[in-house]
Amino acid sequence: MLITGTQITDQALLANADPKNIRGGCYYLRIHSIIPTGEEAKTYDPSKPTTFYTLEPGGLAWVISEEKFQIEDARVTALVTLRSGFTKQGMLALDVGLVDANFFGPIGSLVINFSKKPIRLKAGDEFFRVLFFQHGEAKDGQVPKLTSFTHSEYVEKILTDMVGGFSGTFLQTAEMEKRIREDLKNDITNRLEPDLLDKFASRFFQKNWLKLIGLLAAAVLSGYFFGVTDYLHSKEQINELIQNQLEALGIHESTSPVSE
Question: What are the extents of the domains in the chain?
Fold first, then answer.
């Protein structure tokens, strides 16, 4: 059976609950603080909680609830989900789910921004949505052991157990795509450039070696490479020498020395 409306506050299932956050059959949990991941987590001070945080695309952070659960009745279980407004923005909560009886304290979730835009998180914002269900009596040995945390203790547990293993931007897909593109481009260029140049040079010389030799011989004979053409020959004489050499090699005037 779903516990609805003022039954949530009447049964004191949440500490410091605000009746205004009750919406029909659910209650909206507010943000208490945000714990960054990666390098920022190493210097995070639980006594000075972060109350405003911008979650960049691909970024991760822990979000802690303002309300603290205090489910004493073993016949009650809570189901926590991420508010749909944040889901539509491209956010995913990794570990929301069931809250059993005998749990006293705030809840938190590691969230990821899968969108291409920053998402702003602020203390006091409605973030989680919780449903309370009443069910049959639990049998002996099935009732969870009592677990209790203050906000500071809960944050300390997260910092110790989880946060250190995550990079704050390990899912930044734009950066990953850029690096992959650059690596592929460099690899392909390094592999293909020498082969392409070798093949081009080889084919060019195979097809045009005779013509190139003819041009080189004509240029040498005319004094072209020695910078003395103005002293040895007139312009007409130079052209005549080159033309004679080309004709001797079977290359006519209308044919380009480097053509097929």
Answer: 2-171, 174-248
Closest CA to 163 of 34, 37, 33: 37
Q: How far apart are CA 47 and CA 140, in angstroms?
A: 39
Which residues, in sequence order, are CB contacts of 186 under 8 Å at separation 6+? none
Of 62-71, 124-133, 201-210, the one with minimum mean pLDDT is 201-210
Given CA atoms 159, 164, 168, 174 in this order, what sign does their dihedral have?
negative
Contacts with 127 (C-beta within 8 Å, 6 or more apart), sequence order: 28, 29, 30, 31, 63, 65, 82, 83, 86, 121
CA distance 44 to 30: 21
CB 67 within 8 A of CB 30: yes
Distance CA 6, CA 15 (A): 14
User: What whole-number distance in Å separates Cα of residue 181 and Cα of residue 158?
Assistant: 36
Encode burial over 173-189: b for 16+ CB neighbours within 10 A, e otherwise: eeeeeeeeeeeeeeeee
* Pairing of β 103-105 and β 147-148: parallel
Residue pair 57/116 in contact by the 8 Å Cβ criterion: yes
Q: What proportion of the chain, given as a percentage, has pLDDT over 90?
A: 45
CATH architecture of 2-171: Distorted Sandwich (2.70)
Cα 118 → chain centroid: 12
Give the pLDDT confidence score for residue 41 in this predicted structure. 84
